[in-house]
Amino acid sequence: MENAKILVVEDEKSISDIIKFNLQKEGFSVIASYDGEDALLAVKMENPDLILLDVMLPKVDGFTVCKKVRETSTVPIIMLTAKEEEVDKVLGLELGADDYMTKPFGMRELLARIKANLRRATIALGPEIDTAQSNEKEFGDLTIDLNRYEIRKKGKILELTLREFELLRYLAERENKVFSREQLLEEVWGYEYYGDIRTVDVTVRRLREKLEDDSSNPKYIMTKRGIGYYFCRA
Ligand code: CA
Q1: Separation of 140 CA from ligand 1 center, angstroms?
Q2: How far, in Å, is the centroid of ligand 1 from the Cα of 187?
Q3: Which residues pair with 51 in a beta bridge?
């Protein structure tokens, strides 16, 4: 994890330089992109382990970059948003970002977020897990492979981000038990997340779009009105 490669996409050079300096001090390898077009190229060429992605960028904006990257990759993406762009957080998550930070932020906080997101990705892909060995659990017509980090529905692999995978796994392993949004934030996201429960709603919505035959009439991830969510075998 120490040598993880991080792509920093930020057009304000002073901010980019500070981030780069601090990440390198922690032992990360850092690539800097100053506009969205270059960022998309860097993702292809450099195959980073994590992306820090500013929203307001020249040429191609951060949301578009996020959406494009998600077409081919589940690399962790942390969006960097300005304080007044509250609504952007939700949009970023809908487009597949894993996390977001509001500028200005402290370096210690940023490092904690980066490490938390890398840890999850490492757990998913780490060498200590024998990916040749499947470790499958069946939940009705869903199969969750804990080693390969794969979820199949009637044999067909679902393209989920790590966060979506973890939320689904968490709920499925605790079938029929209802969890509040706050509980899910704490258990699945694993750290203080500014208590923004919309994060859970957005992730559930995106998961349903991929998982359910009809996302407006879900059969797996159920809403318990006024309380939260639970998993149910379809
Ligand atoms: Ca910017």
Answers
A1: 46
A2: 32
A3: 7, 77
Please name which of 59, 40, 60 lies closest in space to residue 51, comparing C-alpha atoms: 40
CA angle at 73 for the pair 78 and 149, rounded to the nearest 5°: 95
Alpha carbons 23 and 96: distance in angstroms, whole number: 24
Two tokens, residue 230: 């639970």
User: Which one-letter DSSP state was computed for residue 115?
Assistant: H
| Pair 6, 49: CB distance under 8 Å | yes
Distance between CA atoms of residues 122 and 153, nearest Å:
24
Please say whether the beta carbons of 196 and 89 come within 8 A. Answer: yes
The alpha carbon of 20 is separated from its chain's Cα centroid by a whole number of angstroms, namely: 22
Q: Express each pLDDT in 130-184 by its tens digit.
A: 555 667 888 888 998 877 778 899 888 888 887 888 899 999 999 999 999 989 9
Which two three-digit tokens encode residue 22? 């601090």
Report the candidate in 142, 182, 190 with the shortest Cα–Cα distance to residue 166. Answer: 190
- Rounded-to-integer distance, Cα 120 and Cα 223, Å: 26
Separation of CA 13 and ligand 1 centre (Å): 9
What is the distance in A from the centroid of ligand 1 to the CA of 6?
18
Q: Which residue has the tokens 């991080």?
A: 6
In the chain, which residue ranges form alpha helices assigned H by DSSP? 13-25, 36-46, 62-70, 86-94, 107-125, 162-172, 181-184, 198-211
Instruction: Quickly count: other Cβ atoms within 10 Å of residue 128's Cβ.
Output: 6
pLDDT tens digits along 206-221: 899 999 999 899 999 9
Percent helix / strand / coil, the chain, rounded to 5:
40, 20, 40
